[in-house]
Automatic annotation (TrEMBL), chain A:
It is found in: Cell membrane. Residues 18-362 form the ABC-2 type transporter transmembrane domain. One of its GO terms (molecular function) is ABC-type transporter activity. The keyword rRNA-binding does not apply. It is a multi-pass membrane protein. It comes from Shewanella mangrovi. Keywords: Cell membrane, Membrane, Transmembrane, Transmembrane helix. The chain crosses the membrane at residues 21-37, 182-204, 225-251, 257-282, 289-311, 345-367. GO terms for cellular component: plasma membrane. This is ABC transporter. InterPro entries: ABC-2_transporter_component, ABC2_TM. PANTHER family: INNER MEMBRANE TRANSPORT PERMEASE YHHJ, MEMBRANE COMPONENT OF ABC TRANSPORTER YHHJ-RELATED.
Automatic annotation (TrEMBL), chain B:
This is ABC transporter. It is a multi-pass membrane protein. Signal peptide: none annotated. It is found in: Cell membrane. GO terms for molecular function: ABC-type transporter activity. Keywords: Cell membrane, Membrane, Transmembrane, Transmembrane helix. Its main location: membrane. It comes from the Bacteria. The chain crosses the membrane at residues 20-37, 114-131, 185-209, 230-252, 264-285, 294-313, 351-370.
Length: 383, 380
């Protein structure tokens, strides 16, 4: 075993790319993706305002739009210019105060304010839509208040008159609806899974050289794979823990529990390893193994169910996502980090037990690929 | 061998190489189904919400019915206390809570303001926004109705009462992706990125396999070789692009506002710049299994820095500058503006020229790289 470990380390030392994959690429990747989203809370998003009324009311509403930290009002004189800016993505929403707004309001004719928001940039568009309604409602409340007081309603009764029901909305597990807490953990997990896949695939691909291939069957695959796992699993676990430390330690994202994530991370890595081993014995060609694994794991993020809820996926997608270790892992992580529910976490984690079934095709394929001149029995992967 | 035969040889080399064929033909087809598959139901509906009704009055039951009638919310259970409801969330049995406080009806009748409590699981933002949106709409409806009843009771005419409840109407409409569907949001940019990444991988594997062996790639001068290979990949990708932008965009009902000639005019420098960059990139590799790995790791950063998933105004400036060197970045944005958001050709001119600039720049780099490869091979 010690000889195998030493051989593995020697192979690792010769391979600059593999060295990069286990050392600086994960760190750079994690930091880069976090940096990209580091703004966290969308602020100062450009919004076009076309004021065709030029009245005290429209100016007041414009001020109340500008007062929201999410919007940054950019005034346009004509609607066509604002539309052009919308089409170019320079502004994400457009508010039009129509001509005669104040007059119609005073006459009680219910004027209409047009809001157009960019649905193509879904995340920004949805956010702006609710923010614009909120800040306009705030401005309108001021108007109603004045008119009610003028009509002799006592100040104490004004608020229930305007708004008999108020609401208090709580974002559970992510109090300030921070996008870092929402997007960055699954993205980093997806990246980490890709790294694990590449590292395992590269480690196995080392055995594809003709002379080593034969040797591997003589030594037996179990000790070889065990040696590889002994070296790479701890390194990958370290990456996983670094990821958690970055997110929940340094960035201080809320976490109910973290302790139990270590065994879940190990389960994810083992599942990825089983996938890679199966594909390795299926194709036995370095470039093709990588291509196939890439095709399998690249869309994992879309199937995690974080951005788009799992319940809304079609049946086929629900089946496919079960094949991805990361979807099980991410559910387990949310059960633990958000809900602090260890039992649920183990339940989600148990889904990964299904990946043990991959052992069968892997062993079968390994047996089929044994070199002809190696005596039967010695070459069996179970030796 | 003339130029045409060279291109045919190159295309045959692509098809016969199983690793490349798997990535190019398999990948392009496979991804066209696999990536949009989770999203084909477009929007999130019927999120499970648990009710904590501490009032148990006619009005609180009306509020619950209104909430349940909303498409985005489904009332799945009643809990007796907030703790109980919270436990249901922790067991993943519900995604949101609607809290109706004690004295809800009584306070409303007495003209006191009441506060409804909403909560949603913000570990999932689409679920959270659906829950909050659904409950807010239901709350506004009930509140509007109470206001209306109050006004009518005071003898205000029905037509006037409706206007008093909402003195100004807000006409809030999404544009470009009007259904706010997820495929329309993700597919256009993502598909261009898939074309970009697979082209890089194909070129990379092909090059890495050839540079250290004598072969047809040495026949012409570096400039001619680069131009010919760019031509052969552009030819191949013209078909892939036609499939993605022509067929898949229709199939997934993604916005298509540009004319055919405009799309062609945009795709030309996009494919040329990508192919030239892919050629320059391929001269860096000796191992056939490396290009895929590099492109796989860069996919997510390129997608997220593209400016449609996460707004450019929030991305750190240095990352944006750096990303401008990747042909996919101006390509994706120009395509979104032109085809999904209906911009004029004038408006995407900067990106179009940038693509041509990148094309020339990478062509020179590729020529330099191929010359070094040819010299290195002849030296041995």
């Amino acid at each position: 075993m010690r000889a195998l470990l030493r051989r593995e380390l020697r192979l690792l030392k010769q391979d600059n790319w593999q060295l990069a994959l286990i050392s600086y690429i994960p760190l750079l990747g994690f930091m880069l993706l976090w940096w990209l989203f580091s703004a966290g809370l969308p602020r100062q998003l450009p919004v076009a305002v076309v004021d065709q009324d030029h009245s005290s009311v429209s100016r007041m509403l414009e001020r109340s739009l500008d007062a929201s930290p999410v919007n940054q009002v950019i005034s346009f004189t004509s609607q066509s210019e604002a539309i052009a800016a919308m089409r170019q993505g320079d502004v994400f929403a457009m508010v039009t105060f129509p001509y005669g707004l104040r007059r119609e309001l005073l006459l009680g004719q219910q004027p209409q304010i047009d809001i157009r928001y960019n649905g193509q940039f879904l995340l920004v568009g949805k956010l702006l839509s609710s923010q614009l309604s909120l800040s306009l409602a705030d401005g309108l409340r001021k108007l109603s208040r004045q008119s009610l007081i003028a009509h002799g309603v006592p100040a104490k009764l004004v608020a229930p008159h305007i708004e008999p029901m108020t609401t208090q909305t709580t974002a559970l597990f992510n109090r300030n609806t921070n996008y870092v807490g929402f997007l960055v953990p699954p993205i980093l997990v997806a990246l980490w899974q890709l790294l694990a896949m590449l590292i395992f695939a590269n480690a196995l691909n080392k055995e594809l050289k003709p002379e080593r291939w034969q040797q591997s069957y003589q030594v037996g695959w179990w000790p070889i794979i065990a040696a590889k796992s002994l070296i790479y699993l701890p390194i990958l676990l370290l990456h996983g823990q670094f990821m958690l430390a970055l997110l929940y330690g340094y960035l201080g994202l809320p976490a109910a529990q973290l302790l139990w994530l270590l065994p879940v991370q190990l389960c994810l890595l083992l599942s990825v390893g089983l996938w890679v081993a199966t594909i390795f014995f299926l194709l036995a060609d370095s470039a093709r193994v990588i291509s196939f694994c890439t095709a399998l794991f690249a869309p994992a993020f879309a199937y995690m169910g974080i951005t788009f809820p799992t319940a809304e996926m079609p049946e086929l997608a629900k089946l496919w996502r079960l094949l991805m270790p990361s979807s099980h892992y991410m559910e387990a992580q949310i059960s633990l980090v958000s809900y602090g529910n260890v039992a649920l976490m183990w339940q989600q984690c148990a889904g990964m037990a299904g990946f043990l079934l991959l052992l069968l095709p892997a062993m079968l394929l390994a047996y089929k690929r044994r070199p002809q001149n190696v005596a039967a029995g010695v070459g069996e992967p179970t030796s | 061998m003339n130029y045409w035969r060279w291109i045919v040889t190159d295309l045959l080399a692509i098809v016969r190489d199983k690793a490349i064929a798997l990535t190019l033909f398999g990948g392009v087809l496979f991804y066209s189904v696999l990536y949009p598959l989770p999203y084909i139901h477009q929007v999130a509906t019927e999120q499970a919400v648990v009710v904590v009704d501490l009032d148990n009055s006619s009005l609180s039951r009306q509020m619950i019915r209104y909430a349940d009638a909303n498409a985005q919310v489904a009332i799945v259970a009643r809990a007796n206390s907030v703790t109980e409801a919270k436990a249901m969330i922790d067991r993943d049995e519900a995604k949101g809570i609607l809290l109706i406080p004690e004295g809800f009806r009584r306070d409303l009748l007495r003209g006191k303001q009441v506060t409804l409590g909403f909560a949603g699981d913000a570990s999932y933002f689409l679920i959270y926004s659906a829950v909050v949106r659904g409950l807010t709409t239901a709350g506004l409806d009930v509140s509007g109705q109470i206001q209306l009843q109050g006004l009518l009771a005071h003898g205000v005419l029905p037509a006037a009462a409706a206007k008093q409840v909402a003195p100004i109407a807000l006409n809030d409409v999404p544009v470009f992706n009007q259904g706010l569907g997820y495929p329309g949001y993700v597919v256009p940019g993502l598909f261009l990125l898939i074309l970009h990444q697979t082209l890089f991988i194909g070129m990379g594997i092909l090059g890495a396999g050839q540079w250290r062996q004598t072969g047809y790639w040495q026949q012409f001068s570096p400039l001619t070789t680069v131009c010919l290979r760019v031509a052969s990949f552009t030819l191949l990708y013209a078909f892939f692009s036609a499939f993605y932008i022509g067929w898949c965009f229709y199939a997934y009902d993604v916005g298509r506002q540009a004319s055919l000639s405009q799309v062609l005019l945009l795709m030309l420098p996009y494919l040329l710049a990508t192919a030239a960059a892919g050629m320059a990139f391929s001269t860096l590799f000796n191992r056939r299994d490396l290009p895929t790995q590099v492109m796989l790791l860069t996919s997510m950063p390129i997608l997220f820095v593209g400016g449609f998933v996460w707004p450019l105004t929030l991305i750190p400036e240095p990352l944006i500058w750096l990303s401008q060197l990747v042909p996919a970045i101006p390509g994706m944005m120009a395509m979104l503006e032109l085809n999904q958001m209906g911009a004029d050709w004038q408006q995407i001119m900067p990106q179009w020229l940038q693509l041509w600039g990148l094309c020339v720049g990478y062509l020179l780099l590729a020529v330099w790289g191929v010359r070094r490869r040819q010299q290195a091979l002849s030296a041995t």
